[in-house]
From TrEMBL:
Keywords: Ribonucleoprotein, Ribosomal protein, RNA-binding, rRNA-binding. It comes from Kordia antarctica. This is one of the proteins that binds to the 5S RNA in the ribosome where it forms part of the central protuberance. InterPro entries: Rbsml_bL25/Gln-tRNA_synth_N (IPR020056), Ribosomal_bL25/Gln-tRNA_synth (IPR011035), Ribosomal_bL25_b-dom (IPR020057), Ribosomal_bL25_C (IPR037121), Ribosomal_bL25_long (IPR001021), Ribosomal_L25_dom (IPR029751), Ribosomal_uL5_bac-type (IPR020930). NCBIfam families: bL25_bact_ctc, PRK05618.2-2. GO terms for molecular function: 5S rRNA binding; structural constituent of ribosome. This is Large ribosomal subunit protein bL25.
């Protein structure tokens, strides 16, 4: 999995006054959990753009001013309810020998026969929750729809992989091909026309 480096400065004070001062200076207060004790630091708000405002999943390297680095994953975000500015970020430390839980984006591969015949593809799960060692975390999970006909579903069991564990029930539908509204209406109209032609249903009188 691709990694993003966040350059930060360790915080000496974690009170409300210092936190407000950080935000006024365009910085975001952060906490790194998972070690002996939480590590409080701050980073420039702009440094989170490639991590937060993207559908992709990334691991993180937190590089502090004292030269130390910490491998981590994004755990939680807090946004301002009006401005949507990032208020606070929580990270969780990662270790090579310990499994992590992450949400991995689903990408579509192939052309569905059902879609080409008038069906509509519905992506029920844009991300899948998995558990794996850091080295086995994939950038994305690929959903091959090349065999899906109208009415077919792709369940989470189709994505079983020895490198990670899927944290969903077996009956979870990842994507499916449904008959589109336009195709459904066309089919209903065709049935009505057949009944009218056969004389089993009276035609709707034309408006005067």
């Amino acid at each position: 999995m691709k990694s993003i480096t966040i350059n930060g400065s360790q915080r000496e004070s974690v009170g409300k006054v210092s936190t407000k001062a950080l935000r006024n200076a365009g910085k975001v207060p952060c906490v790194l959990y998972g070690g002996d004790k939480p590590l409080h630091f701050s980073a420039e708000e702009l440094s989170f753009s490639k991590l937060v405002y993207t559908p992709n999943a990334h691991t993180v390297v937190i590089a502090l001013e004292d030269g130390t680095t910490h491998n981590a994953i994004l755990q939680d975000l807090q946004f301002h309810p009006v401005s949507d500015k990032i208020l606070h970020v929580d990270f969780y430390r990662s270790f090579e020998d310990k499994e992590l839980t992450m949400s991995i984006p689903v990408t579509i591969k192939g052309k569905s026969p059902g879609v080409m015949n008038g069906g509509a593809l519905r992506l029920n799960k844009r991300k899948l929750r998995i558990k794996a060692l850091p080295k086995n975390l994939p950038d994305f999970i690929e959903a091959d729809i090349s065999e899906l006909k109208i009415g077919d579903k792709l369940y989470v069991t189709a994505f079983a992989n020895e490198n990670y564990k899927l944290l969903h029930t077996d009956n979870t539908v990842v994507c499916q091909v449904r008959i589109s509204r336009a195709a459904m209406k066309a089919a209903q109209d065709a049935v009505k026309e057949e009944k009218v032609a056969a004389g089993t249903t009276p035609a709707t009188p034309a408006a005067e």
